[in-house]
Specification:
Blueprint (H helix, E strand, L loop, with lengths): L8 E2 L1 H12 L5 H21 L4 E2 L1 H40 L1
Parallel strand pairs: 1-2
Helix pairs in contact: 1-2, 1-3, 2-3
Length: 97
């Protein structure tokens, strides 16, 4: 009879990355996304260095994707707001001047 393999632990950083990746879309906009991205990168490095002892790479990647998508959406929203309000100012100046 063979001995069972020890259970692999899940990286705490991967769990944190996934949790904050989800939270950034609902409760913690930019801070949550930054935490998700930082913890996701740290988790992937930790998992690689553990040589099979840690699990959770999928959670870390999901947290990274959610965090980066949120940051990209926030940047696009800021750029869109500047373009929209800048266009309004130009329009007002053009017809009043």
């Amino acid at each position: 009879m063979s001995t069972p393999l020890p259970a692999r632990r899940t990286s705490s950083l991967a769990i944190i990355s996934l949790v904050f990746g989800v939270l950034c879309w609902f409760a913690l906009p930019v801070i949550g996304a930054l935490i998700a991205v930082v913890c996701g990168h740290m988790a992937r490095g930790e998992i690689r260095q553990s040589r099979g002892e840690l699990d959770g790479d999928g959670m870390a990647v999901a947290g990274l994707v959610l965090g980066w998508l949120h940051l990209a959406a926030a940047i696009l929203a800021v750029i869109s707001a500047f373009l929209f309000f800048g266009g309004l100012l130009w329009f007002a100046h053009f017809f009043n001047g």
